[in-house]
Amino acid sequence: MPWSIADIPDQSGRVAVVTGANGGLGLETAEALAGKGAHVVMAVRNQDKAAAAKTRIVTTHPTASVELVPLDLGNQDSVKTAVDTIIKAHPEIDLLVNNAGLMAMPERQTDDGYEMQFGVNHLGHWTFTAGLLPSLLRADAAGKDVRVVTVTSVARFMGTAVDPSNPHLRDKYGAWTSYGQAKLSNYYFGLGLQKAFETAGVGVESLIAHPGLSHTDLQSHTQAEGGGGIIGALSDKFAAITGMKPADGARMQLRAATDPSARGGELYGPMLASNGPPVKRPVLRKIGMDKNIATLWSVSERETGVALDVAAAKSTLDG
User: Fold this and answer.
1) What is the pLDDT of residues 259-268, one digit of tens each?
2) How many helices (H) and strands (E) does the chain have?
């Protein structure tokens, strides 16, 4: 039988952090986890929208345990403040879903001067994940099943690895070029994080997921912004006609996050490439992958000033 939300094991006693949980795939992910008993931290930028999302969850699941934390992935100070808030409240975190993202935006910069899509989709999550490492590692040390799930896209296939000399695509910007680079960075990040966990000898697992063609506000936001051009407009209409509902698209990251048989380094996506139930998909683009991951780590640390060093984080806790 195809995997469905009904197959999610009981999540009671677990703490899950979901970025972008106020709409689309993030909201569906947060609601599914809360409905199964997890305490869900909804880390989101738009707090009015987040409040409405929380109301929806607790209306559907009256016993749901849900918490809102402000998080603007386009502002590194906001990311660090969110991290401090979360780790103080939750010394142990069992699940982190790096879900939030932007698609095919007009060229603009984050508050820190990063190209917006790379800055939000990757660099914001880089700093967020690095900051939450202590709580993830404590949960792992307590013998829990701890996972980080990063959401990528089939757009990674049109992306190129980050150029260390021009990671923000100065004078080379294209809305879809940038989106492809950002989603390929998400892909490499998830795989690189798994290698870092293994090298450090910890049990935390990093997985990646892509939702296929899901009709969410991601497409409508792209169309409204105009950065995606005619492709953006057509993708919104095409997704409305043929795309999966958000609840169906969220199954990919939910399976990666909760299926007891899922393992670190695996990719989950739709059975039929862009549609269908969640299945394990092959990890492709392996040629040059180790080099590209190492470059991404170096660029990310240089740009943010934040090291994502699992071994160092583990030694701090051990000490």
Assistant:
1) 999 999 999 9
2) 12, 8
